[in-house]
Amino acid sequence: MKTINIGIIGYGVVGAGVATLLVQKKELLEARTGASLTLKTIADIDIVTDRGVDLGNTVLVNDAMALINDPEIDIVVELVGGDTIAKQFTLKALENGKHVVTANKALLAGHGNELVKTARENQVDLAFEASCGGCMPIIKSLRESLVANSILSMSAILNGTCNYILTKISQDGSSFEDALKDAQKLGFAEAEPSLDVDGHDTAHKLAILNSLAHGMEINLKDIHVEGIRNITPVDIEFARSFGYTIKLLAIGKVQGDYVEARVHPTMIPHANPLSHVDHSMNAIAIDADATGKTMLYGHGAGMMPTASAVLSDIADIARNIISNTNRRVPILGYLQDNIKIIPILPMKELQTRYYLRFEAQDHPGVLSKISGILGANNISIKSVHQKGRQSNGKVPVVMITHMAKEEWVQEALTQIAATDSVVGDSVVIRIEEDV
Q1: Residue of 110, 57, 74, 60 whose CA lies nearest to 2
Q2: Which of 211, 339, 392, 411 has the lowest CB atom count within 10 Å?
Q3: Active site residues
Q4: pLDDT > 90 fraction of the chain, expressed in percent and rounded
């Protein structure tokens, strides 16, 4: 049985999970791959020998380059995170003719085109199943299972932190701040949560998935991104009364010669299965021309779910090695000559329905003034809902629009804000009926 040597860079939570599976599932992996997957070396700047894993003869070092330059290492697993030193390690490993497995969505979203080019030039594999959706096989599904399909749209909950916070607000009536503190206490949220709650982690994943779905170069910079900091129990209660749930969605849709790519809080009908994905769970709904709609659901993060996805990549590469082949499946799902630069639809061109909430002054004519400004900007109102006067004398007014253009809505909101009819910032949440 051929021995395939593996080196792990980064011995944190996920690194320890990968090591655990390599040790504890060794016989199962051999039975399924036909290779002996041997963890030869682990590199971490902070060498901690005891993470609850019996490493046997595995060598621990604090110099990642020693691992990368070791001629006996076949597969390098990059689990450092970030897109600075991780990029250096990954590029060097690929240049040294090593296959690389990574869970690093920020690295791929920011530098994936360069990394794919380097892997291709050095005739090695770059695999990243764990970068999007944890243990859900999203990458494999887009790259292999749906190979005969044109992907029409994707809608996904891809950040467990945000989903937990929104669930907490919805079920307990918590404020965003209290729900975030709870998520941090339970380990779902980082001490500095901006990457998650401001939507950027989700955008990284959408950039990768768009490339796989549509044969386009990875494009992060043009994705519209909004987070969940401004979502309140008031908005969630209004949404519930209208038959909707608010989720932070990653949405990718084909629109003619463009691809929609946006991340923002979204109202979706209670009947949509995504509305019932709660707590820290993730899910993605894919609409393809041959299969119709399919959905994947599972843990999007965590030691063992993420480690499981990493092992799926290691196993694929091991099978290629013992078959004396590589790059059997194109890294981005399309042959390089067929990967195109496909523009992302400018956000101002988006057309959808909108939930608008204003803190209106309790004066005669305020409602008609707001409605008039909306109408002057081609925005048709489907319904208006007004609650009683608050203790501060303001009246919450909610309007649901018919289909409207983002550009029109933003212009109308600017004009409304310039009047004396409302106080503070208006709340805008986009509505998607069929995602």
Answers
A1: 74
A2: 392
A3: 205
A4: 89
- Residue 242 token pair: 């209208």
Say whether 307 sits in a helix, a strand or coil.
Answer: helix
pLDDT at 391 over 90: no
Q: For residues 238, 243, 246 and 250, what is the CA-based torsion angle, rounded to 10 degrees? A: -150
Q: Is pLDDT larger for residue 148 or for residue 424?
A: 148
For residues 86, 310, 287, 332, the Cα torsion angle rounded to the nearest 10 degrees is 50
Q: Does an H or E element contain 321, and which?
A: helix 303-322
Q: 16 with 44: CB under 8 angstroms?
A: no
Query: How would you classify residue 243: left for phi > 0, otherwise alpha for psi between -120 and 50, otherwise beta?
Result: left
- pLDDT of res. 224: 98
Distance CA 425, CA 413 (A): 9
pLDDT digits 0-9 by tens, 301-319: 999 999 999 999 999 999 9
CA–CA dist 144, 313 (Å, integer): 13
Helix axis angle, 13-24 to 26-33, nearest 10°: 70
Contact (Cβ atoms closer than 8 angstroms) between residue 94 and residue 124: yes
For residue 382, give every residue at least 6 positions away whose Cβ sits within 8 Å of its Cβ, in sequence order, or none. Answer: 353, 400, 401, 402
φ and ψ of 49, to 5 deg: -75, -25
Give the helix ranges, DSSP H, for 25-159: 26-33, 64-68, 85-95, 105-121, 138-140
**Mean per-residue pLDDT over the chain, rounded:** 95
SS (H, E, C) 123-185: CCCEECHHHCCCCCCHHHHHHHHCCCCCEEEEEEECCHHHHHHHHHHHHHCCCHHHHHHHHHH
User: What's residue 48's pLDDT?
Assistant: 67
Torsion sign, CA atoms 213, 218, 224, 226: positive
- What does the pLDDT look like over 324-383, one tens digit per residue? 998 899 999 999 999 999 999 999 999 999 999 999 988 888 999 999 999 999 999 999
Q: Name residues whose C-beta falls within 8 Å of residue 326's C-beta, 6 or more positions apart in sequence.
A: 99, 123, 124, 125, 317, 320
Is residue 132 within 8 A of residue 147, CB to CB? The reply is: no
